[in-house]
Amino acid sequence: MADRLDELLARERFAILDGGLATELERAGCELDDPLWSARVLLDEPARLTRVHRRFVEAGAEILATASYQATIPGLVARGLDEREARAALRQTVSLARAAAEPATLVAASIGSYGAYLADGSEYRGDYGLDRQALVEFHRPRLRELSAAGPDLLAFETIPDAVEAEAIAELLAREPGPRAWVSFSLRPDASLRISDGTPLARAVRPLLGHPRVAALGVNCLGPREVLAAVEALASLAPLTAIVAYPNSGERWVHPRPGGPGCWAGAGTELEEFQTLAGRWAAAGARLIGGCCRTRPRHIAALVELRAQLDAQP
């Protein structure tokens, strides 16, 4: 049976995701230097989250990701919530996105990697060394709460570790809920290896043909690094939608493991971002958006691109 994502993809050559939620929150004056990152605003100023979600909807986003990327039950409890309150906060991320959405807008419940929970840059290294069962147990409570909140999709984001991909495949086979996309973080060296060094082709194997996997892809890499990954995934999974949502071209760096991080380098110009996105679409990407440091104007550029492509004979 077709779900809302299938219906959207049947109408459009590609669906348009949102951009960097945390980036817009920072521009709105929110202080996000916190292990909870954008989820800090969930606790302090939830109405501001809805307003920022709305900016992306107004720019043309058709799928909104919730502010739960770095929100976990242990992380929320560490901030002083009891477990019941932490579970309610996770469900609230879906409600806040829904409040910003148009009737046709889909909501994807964001689930960051274990490395995102560590808040030390591990989602760009994948070197946290847990076995599959430990990762299943880590992700299961959040997966259950977010699924119960009724999102249209789950979004496992910035996955750097091949064992974590195996854990996600197991969870999706065992736990009820909507379909999911799974997107990986890659090494910035054109090797098509995920951050822990595993070849992308091997990392996606547990997810290929999985009935709960709606899309496979990459996120938070540079825009110029996306095309090769889309081409590889389109070859590996010809019947699965490909999702691509890079950062602005800047790169998150940690001077030392566990130390404070910062964004470095120059972002891709908007015109180049739009041109590159056209190549991703031509290569088979069906869900396209932006990650860190991308803004509503990047989403508006994708809307313009799609209109241009649709107008071509």
TrEMBL record:
UniProt KW Zinc keyword: yes
UniProt keyword terms in alphabetical order: Metal-binding, Methyltransferase, Transferase, Zinc
Cofactor: Zn(2+)
Cofactor-binding details, from the entry: Binds 1 zinc ion per subunit.
Binding site for Zn(2+): 220, 291-292
SUPFAM superfamilies with a match to the protein in the record: Homocysteine S-methyltransferase
Pfam families noted in UniProt: S-methyl_trans
Superkingdom classification of source: Bacteria
Hcy-binding domain location: 3-306
Gene Ontology MF: a single term: S-adenosylmethionine-homocysteine S-methyltransferase activity
EC number annotated for this UniProt entry: 2.1.1.10
Gene Ontology biological-process annotations: methionine biosynthetic process; methylation; S-methylmethionine cycle
InterPro entries, sorted: BHMT-like, HCY_dom, HCY_dom_sf, Hcy_S-methyltransferase
Protein name per its UniProtKB record: Homocysteine S-methyltransferase
Organism: Enhygromyxa salina
Gene responsible for this protein: mmuM_1
